[in-house]
Fold TetR/AcrR family transcriptional regulator.
Amino acid sequence: MSTPDRLIEATQDLLWERGYTGTSPKAIQRAAGAGQGSMYHHFTGKSDLALAAISRTAQEMRETAGRLLDGPGTPRERITAYLLREREVLRGCPVGRLTMDPDVIADDALRAPLDATLEWLRERIATLLQEGLDNGEFAPGTAPGPVAATIVATVQGGYVLARASGSSTAFDSAVDGLLSLLAAPARTA
Amino acid sequence: MSTPDRLIEATQDLLWERGYTGTSPKAIQRAAGAGQGSMYHHFTGKSDLALAAISRTAQEMRETAGRLLDGPGTPRERITAYLLREREVLRGCPVGRLTMDPDVIADDALRAPLDATLEWLRERIATLLQEGLDNGEFAPGTAPGPVAATIVATVQGGYVLARASGSSTAFDSAVDGLLSLLAAPARTA
DNA sequence: GTCTATACTCCGATAGAC
DNA sequence: GTCTATCGGAGTATAGAC
């Protein structure tokens, strides 16, 4: 792999693990097996490299989620598959994690990929909810936009609960609760 | 106020804003108006001071949430009041935020107050859900434990969405969606 | 209790040789 | 492209005077 690619991947890993403030150029160089001069030859500095890493992470997250949300099954089944997919829960979300970093939030260029990714996810799920409403899979009156936000928030917050407790159980519990709330509408109507 | 108190309060603010890694002893001293020697006289170091600050923040959060969850109204009304309470959404949750800090999560003493607080909140809400089930305010079949986890996760995740977008709208939307799901007519026969 | 002095390392970057 | 040298500042303390 090329040196820039190794630098970007190392930065992705470190940003996920330690955040922007907690990630130093030196640590990136060590992880990538690249020297100081090499890193500053390919990137103008830490923030430039972080932008490349965050953009790539955001893209990868879209692909991962998209495979399930655009996959086989009914709208409800796809949302369920997304919620129940295998996750390294205790590592947290590589995108959502960065929203707690003030230096990332303060920089519009770094924040943009985070916003775009979570917004894309919310929209994609809202569309599925609408399709599920149309085919009777969800309770009439379900508001796709807000409920999609709830779904994304539950996942993001599930990571918080899991990391606080040191166990993925809390994440699973939050998802279970959400799925039960989304359960099939009464057949009586 | 005493010097230790000023140091603790300054640390609380900085941990909320910048996290553990992003908070330096020097910044704490500046914010507290205390000197180097003074800080190290009252606390053994950064982590000791952080423990005091985190414990106090956790206690304050319990009191704030408790005032609404133990307040007037039916169980459903109290949960709703908790979800709709005024928040400085873009600042995030001073407790949840720290779960993304690897140095906090790696230290059981620092992690314990986070876990205890979120666990307390989840339990308190689960109890209210059970009471609401008993008086018919929630759909039969609602599982108090998991749904309580969903409620707490939605709030924590709402902060993530809001900070990503730079607006509190996404938080409000996630809460709206959650309230609508909790208000849905009985779907389990 | 608080102050200043000191120590050693890392941070984030630039400069210039090869 | 990559290396080494260098830089001013910040991080996280410890020591000892007052």
